[in-house]
Each structure stands twice: as C-alpha cells, then as structure tokens.
Amino acid sequence: MRQTALIHAAVFSVLTGAVASFGVAGGPAFAQSAPGAPGAAPVMPDATLIAPAPGSETESSPPLVDPDLDPTLDADAARADRLDALFADLAEGDEAAADKAESQIRRIWNRSGSDSMDLLLTRGREALEHEDLTTALQHFGAVTDHAPDFAEGWNLRATAFYLRGDLGQALADIERVLALEPRHYGAMTGLAVILEQLGRDADALTAWREAARINPHIEQAQDAIARLATSVDGRGI
C-alpha cells in the first residue's frame, strides 16, 4: 500500500501560526523584513535549501508514463508511485543511492507539465542567479498564477521573497508548497531557517527534525538539530 506523506501535525501548526502572525494568509502579500538593518535582506546559510540550484535536477528526462503506449495509465498515480520509491531510497539508502534519489526527486518536482511554465521557471531561476529579484518574482508570479498546483513555482517564489526580506510572503508560499508537496524537504528547511531567524527556536527545531526525517542526508539539518536541541530540550540529539 502506498504510504501517503503528510506534513507532521506540529510542523503544520507552526507554519500556519507563523503565516497568520504576518497577516498574509488568504490575503495580499505583506512585506516584512527580517530582524536587522531596515529593509535588509536576510542572509541564507545555503540558498539551495529552498530552491535547488539549476543543474542535473532540471535536465530533461523520460516521462514517467507514456500515454501513447498505455492510455489506461494514470500519470498522477505513476508520479506518486515513483516518488514513494525515491523517498524510500532517500531515507534508507546509502550516500550514493540517496544522491541519485534526490536528483531524480528534484527532476520530478521541476516538471510542470507545460513547456511555457517550464520556460518561465527557467527564466526566473536565471534572474535569481543574477540577484534580479524583481524579475525573478515576476516570472515566478506568472507561474503561480497560471499553474497554481505546481509546487516548485511557489517554492522558487518563496526563495525570491525570502532573499528580498519578505518573510511573511515567503512563509505563505512555503505553506502552499507543503500543501502540494508535503515531503518537500527544501521548503521544510527554508521554513526552519526563517523560524530560527525569527527567534522561534522550538518551532525551528520541530521543522528541522521533520526535514531530517524526510531526508536524513541534509547535513545542515543535523547540525541545526544538534545546536537547537541543547537549548530547547536541554540536551543534545
């Protein structure tokens, strides 16, 4: 039986509460800068936490199913089955198997099913690489407008909002990502980073632990858990 991935209840509670505190849930974007210099964008320890850098994960690869060969196949079901198998490899495999699984997971996540949306996503990534956040947000916004069920559009837009210092909108977009892709460990780590920056160490620890449960190979998650567990739980891992 397929194991259905669900956001850990504690993480979901933390996320919805954090989004509500910024006043962005169900409403227009509310720009909120991170603590520090007015208007300064926060420094992210690793920008790939929320948005994987362009590379092998965006390379073209064969479709999961070929409807011309078997029109009875359900593409969504095939995608879900494939992701279940890959996440099992990610959680239980050795380093080599985990690296391969992670690359394939990212490839699947980066497929919108639309050439035009994929092009917008690519252009947004390029703008993000050149630190042109305004252009990146325009491209990612077009993706989320026209393909609202495509999690990676929200994920990359969350990255751009985060880098601009709009933590409230970044959290709202992360909420959308995790509603669509509950096992999106990149978005989960992004959530943890933001919560820690906001001084919500206990909530950040919950998010880091969930990210590490999904993907035990996130080195930064293990480091963060060790650091925060001492202060939050009064002990190490």
TrEMBL record:
Keyword set, alphabetical order: Signal, TPR repeat
Q: Which residues cross the membrane?
A: none
Pfam families this protein is in? Answer: TPR_16
* Record carries keyword Signal: yes
What is the phylogenetic placement of the source species in the record? Bacteria, Pseudomonadati, Pseudomonadota, Alphaproteobacteria, Rhodobacterales
| Signal peptide boundaries | 1-20
Protein's name in the database: Tetratricopeptide repeat-containing protein
**Species:** Albimonas donghaensis
Q: Does the keyword Signal apply?
A: yes
InterPro entries from the UniProt entry: TPR-like_helical_dom_sf (IPR011990), TPR_rpt (IPR019734)
Location of region: Disordered? 46-67
User: TPR repeats located where?
Assistant: 151-184
Per its UniProt entry, which superkingdom is the organism in? Bacteria
